[in-house]
Amino acid sequence: MNTPLFKTIKSYVIMTIGLFIFVFSWTAFLIPNQIAGGGVSGLASVINYATGFEVAYSYLIINSILLLIGFLVLGKAFGFKTIFCIGMATLMFEFLPLIPWVSDIEDKLINALIGGTMSGIGIGMIFMQGGSTGGTDIIALIIAKYRETSPGRVFLYCDLIIIGSIYFIPDKELSDVIYGYIEMVSFSYVIDMILTGNRQSVQVMVFSGKYDQIADRVNQEVQRGVTALTSMGWYSKAESKVLVIVLRKSQLPEITAIIKDTDRNAFMTVSTVTSVYGQGFDQIKAGKISWKRKQKES
After folding, report:
1. Among candidates 112, 121, 136, which has minimal Cα distance to 31?
2. 8 A C-beta contact, residue 85 and residue 134
3. With left for phi above 0 and alpha for psi between -120 and 50, is residue 223 left, alpha or beta?
4. Residues forming a β-bridge with 271
5. Where are the alpha helices (DSSP H) in the chain?
6. Nearest-5° Cα angle at 246, 240 to 247
7. pLDDT tens digits along 124-159
8. What is the rounded distance in angstroms from the CA atom of residue 66 to the CA atom of residue 205?
9. Cα separation, 66 vs 33, whole angstroms
10. d(Cα 217, Cα 244) in Å, to the nearest integer?
């Protein structure tokens, strides 16, 4: 069950489920209610509202053009997962509308919130498996090659422009733009919660006379490092050790179980930490060289 083949199959299955949730949010909640959104899917929906051209075809054509430009500018192939996600999403945009179910909720605000939430869940699942739906991701990579700018800023500008463009469709009003921005906020919030929630870290401090047993079990059972600091209880004047453990938030129940099983009288504190770098956590990345600096050097 832990073979590379099984892990690969599992990854693609999860991405396919995420793609289904993502596309279904568009075909069932957003497109039937003429709500715009960000990314290439949002641009394809705006084209559909203005011309009636099918979203699936617009989505495929725009992503194909961006992939081609990416190959020419970046000079390297994109991962197969990106191509898989684009192809699978195109098929789903084509065939999911055949399912005879769309939202019967009349309030566009609720549809925008539900659509944005589901879309964020789907994309979050894809990102966690190392996949990508292309689109503005490619634009961000191209701009980052020549400008020192944040990818998040590129995504924001692209989404603001795409959603705002719906205002220029003759039968649309300012309220339609606002619903699109509400969808964007809902999408951004959910995907941020999924991605950062999965990577949140905590610092645990353990005060126990059985610190050596607890440290050994944490090393062996959870595969986390432990730092033992020399301490002294001011009342008893007895020296001991305080254990400091930094771990993912998802591992906290395991650590708590080990501590309580080893010493039910142990005292522990838990605090949230941010920007944890090192082995087992995030890696420190060097900043990109600015375009102006490259220009001067050339």
Report:
1. 112
2. yes
3. left
4. 203
5. 4-25, 39-51, 55-74, 80-95, 108-128, 136-146, 151-164, 174-199, 211-217, 252-262, 291-297
6. 130
7. 888 888 788 878 777 877 776 677 665 567 778 888
8. 49
9. 28
10. 14
Q: Residue 19, exposed/middle/buried by CB under 10 A (0-12, 13-18, 19+)?
A: buried
The strand pairing partners of 282, in sequence order, are 277
Euclidean distance between the first and the last CA atom of the chain, given in angstroms as a whole number: 52
- Grouping H, G, I as helix, E, B as strand and the rest as coil, residue 35 is coil
Biggest alpha carbon distance in the chain? 80
At residue 139, what is the residue type? Answer: I
Non-local CB neighbours of 67 within 8 Å, separated by 6+ positions: 78, 82, 83, 86, 134, 138
Backbone CA torsion sign across 255, 256, 257, 260:
positive
Compute the distance between CA of residue 245 and CA of residue 254 in angstroms, rounded to an integer.
12
Query: Which backbone phi and psi does 172 adopt, to 5 degrees?
Result: -100, 155
Residue 22 CA to residue 207 CA, distance in Å, equals 46
- Domains of the chain in start order, with CATH, are 4-198 (no CATH), 200-273 (3.30.70.120)
Distance from C-alpha of 77 to C-alpha of 92, rounded to nearest angstrom: 24
pTM listed for this prediction: 0.70
Can you read off the two tokens belonging to residue 125? Answer: 């699942």
* C-alpha to C-alpha distance for 105 and 211, rounded to whole angstroms: 57
Report the DSSP beta bridge partners of residue 204.
245, 270
Q: Return the H-helix or E-strand segment holding 151.
A: helix 151-164
As a whole number of angstroms, the distance between CA 11 and CA 178 comes to 36
Query: What HEC string does 235-275 produce?
Result: CCCCEEEEEEEEEEHHHHHHHHHHHHHHCCCCEEEEEEECC
In the beta sheet, which residues pair with residue 268?
Answer: 206
40-98, pLDDT tens digit by residue?
Answer: 999 999 999 999 999 999 999 999 998 888 778 766 556 788 889 999 999 999 999 98
Q: How far apart are CA 48 and CA 56, in angstroms?
A: 10
Length of the chain (residues)? 298
